Phosphoesterase HXTX (Stanieria cyanosphaera), 185 residues
Amino acid sequence: MVNQTKQLYFIALLPPAEIQTVVTEIKQHFAKIYNSKAALKSPPHVTLQAPFHLEKDNLPVLEKKLAEFVKSESTMPMILDGFSAFRPRVIYVNVLKTPELLTIQTKLTNHLESTLGIVHRAAKSRPFAPHMTVGFKDLTKTNFYQAWEEFKDQKIYFEFTVSNLTLLTHNGSCWEIYREFLLAG
């Protein structure tokens, strides 16, 4: 039975709309050619805080904490450069590990843990690997290797400024943007 008092959320950085369009077209290619549709269930993004359940009554508190957090965080550069993989199941657009990106992820997860007790144990036990997934979960090993042959040397490069922290919620079938928080600066 589904708990109706809790909702599933995650926090991410999203690229500008025109880059989301390009990455979504790549996801659609994965769905059509490699029968991997799972990545289409969320907008293109870089996850900062992995999915977590929260009591619906606590949503205003989460929003307040995120609004407080972004006041001290500046807009930041983000660079997408080529494709990479978590073999043998995930292919993604590579996101460069800039100091700004590593810092905001650490600060955000520490802030959520200390103020709301939100912790993703698995994510906490491994290093942060920023990426923008285009094929995963339902990508079979056979299709992974075929797709990797197609994408491993393919060029993709974008530099842009991220100006929002985005709270996404799961509606039961896919992830959607719930609210954006403007970064200072």
